[in-house]
Design a protein that fits this description.
five-stranded mixed β-sheet, globular, alpha/beta, Nucleotidyltransferase, domain 5
């Protein structure tokens, strides 16, 4: 199961989410997109999920906290307890033995990040 994890600012556009996802490897083979649960209802994310034909997996912040990620952002670590929301969400949603197949990619306007993990599902 391939899952794209997405981190983004509140004012993110569909175009920025799409760009980050394409930079991370694209939609081919994706089973879901995932993000922190308090952003799972964002309109741009719902539009992206519909466009890709996949469900959104909402990952609680306490699940993200402590997930070790190759990419480290000081701001994200302070806020979420993990170095990258995109990488942590992808890993959490792809299952217990998931591994990243694409580390965090960032949109040009820096409002969206995406990473892709592969695993057995949750």
């Amino acid at each position: 199961m391939k899952v794209a994890g997405l981190g983004f600012r509140q004012d993110v556009s569909l175009a920025s989410l799409r760009e980050a996802l394409m930079e991370a490897g694209g939609v081919e083979g994706l089973a879901a997109v995932a993000t922190v649960s308090d952003k799972a209802d964002a309109e741009a994310l719902k539009q992206l999920a519909r466009e890709c034909g996949v469900p959104i997996k909402a990952v609680p912040p306490d699940v993200l906290a402590g997930i070790d990620t190759p990419t480290q952002s000081k701001l994200i670590t302070e806020k979420f307890g993990t170095g990258s929301v995109a990488e942590a969400a992808a890993l959490a949603a792809a299952g217990p033995r998931a591994r990243l197949i694409a580390t965090r990619a960032v949109s040009q306007d820096r409002t969206a990040t995406a990473a892709i993990a592969e695993g057995d599902g949750a």
